[in-house]
Amino acid sequence: MSRILVVDDDRSMREFLEILLDREGYEVVSAANGKAATGLCKRQKFDLVITDLKMPKVGGIDLLKNIKEISPETMVILITAYASGETAIAAMQEGAHDYLEKNFDVEDLKSAVKDALSKKGVKEDDALFIKTVKKSYSFGSMIGKSAEMLKIYGLIKKVAVTPANVLILGESGTGKELVADAIHQNSQRKDEPFVVINCGGIPENLLESELFGYMKGSFSGASADKPGLFEVADGGVVFLDEIGDLPQLLQVKLLRAVQEKTFRRIGGSEDIKVDVRIISATNRNLEEKVKKGSFREDLYYRLNVIPVKITPLRERKEDIPLLVEHFIEKYSKKFEKEIRKISIYALELLMKYPFPGNVRELENIIERSVAMESTNIILPENLVIPGKDDSDVQDEFKIDIPEEGISLNEEMAKIEKTLIKRALDKANGSQKKAAKLLNVSWASLQYRLDKLDIR
After folding, report:
1. CB environment 217-235: b (16+ within 10 A), e (fewer)
2. I want to staple 2 with a disulfide (CB 3.0 to 4.6 A). Which of 47, 154, 184, 242 is the partner?
3. 370 and 339 in contact (C-beta within 8 Å)?
């Protein structure tokens, strides 16, 4: 039996809804205000909450936010006598399932309740998925805890179960192939081939034969029939990486393969039919290429059924520490080293770097650092970052004094912060050892860590 919580400061409305829903066979609990309702939601599980919008102190929107924080899978219907488009949009943005005016028809309410409860199972699955992802901070081979990455994880989960073509957009090094692989691994085709074709990495004169194959004798050197990668991928997924680099002549042939799932080998006279899902990726602006006439508009729309955009690393820097930890573990195993972590100052240098090469560049930096490091912690001097002056790592106390002067307190705080971080690095994170290195008491170091906001 579904459990419904009714919240309204109007006693007559509250009692009316209780009687109506009880007759429909639901277990009904009521609350006279948002504060009481929040308390009930903390102590009990409800499948659905029906709440008034305008209530003193804790209104309907605030209650909705509280409910989604406590129990994301609980469905919410808002009812108000003061309906407006703005409040309806606000309610939906905060996760409300439906929005009704107080002069509602009884049958409309019954229908809204049934619809909300029928979709609760889907919401529960989504909530469980997000909870699992947040616990591991990973999905497939992707790692990240930023809001941007959590959105991508959720989108992949939804996209994977559909047969629709997907276009992955993102700068070089953001992990577009990892996204494509995650879509494949979470789809019904996961046990079928996942064939990667780099449209920019294969010479134009060879690309057609790689994609569609050729018949014996069709050109010099074609000593036997050769199936193309579309045939190899039959039943599975074709991943067209860097699709923006595809020559215009091949765009026509690819359009037919995408649109009709048929093609001909070079030198062949028979159509070959395949069942493949197309996932494409590009770091180019395909819309601009379409406008300029260098990419076919009809092919663009065939490929871009569902777009997935990956945020560059510089815009989700909270993912850097997790990625660094992952790459240290990966390359410590590869190089048979016992490197366990990165120093605080070295990590700070990475956090300040814009990473034009994104995650791929970060991985390259950590691989090189692990290979060069002789201790069990990655130190700043072994970070090879473009634009980093190694002398600054050794001595950054060269301060220019401009005509307008400086703030002595601020500059001294910077120096103090740097020395504390270096001491913590040298002490492998031990605050007692760091305090000893700095010749201060542990209590004094604790005070400075708090004052300077050093984590």
Report:
1. ebeeebeeebebbbbebbe
2. 47
3. yes
Average pLDDT over residues 324-346: 90
> In this structure, what CATH number is given to the domain that contains residue 85?
3.40.50.2300
Give the CA distances from residue 416 to residues 26, 396, 410, in Å, rounded to whole numbers and listed in that order.
Answer: 64, 12, 10
Same domain membership, residue 362 and residue 444: no
- The pLDDT, as a whole number, for residue 393 is 47
Burial of residue 403 (CB within 10 Å: 0-12, 13-18, 19+) is exposed
Query: 285 and 204, same structural domain?
Result: yes
Percent of the chain scored above 90 by pLDDT? 46
DSSP 266: B
Residue 82 — very low, low, confident or very high, per pLDDT cuts 50/70/90? low
Cα separation of 357 and 200, whole Å? 18
Domain range for 257: 161-309
**H/E element, 143:** strand 142-143
In terms of domains, do 445 and 361 share one? Answer: no
Q: What is the pLDDT of residue 442?
A: 83
| Same domain membership, residue 303 and residue 321 | no
Number of domains forming the structure of the chain = 4
CA distance 117 to 120: 5
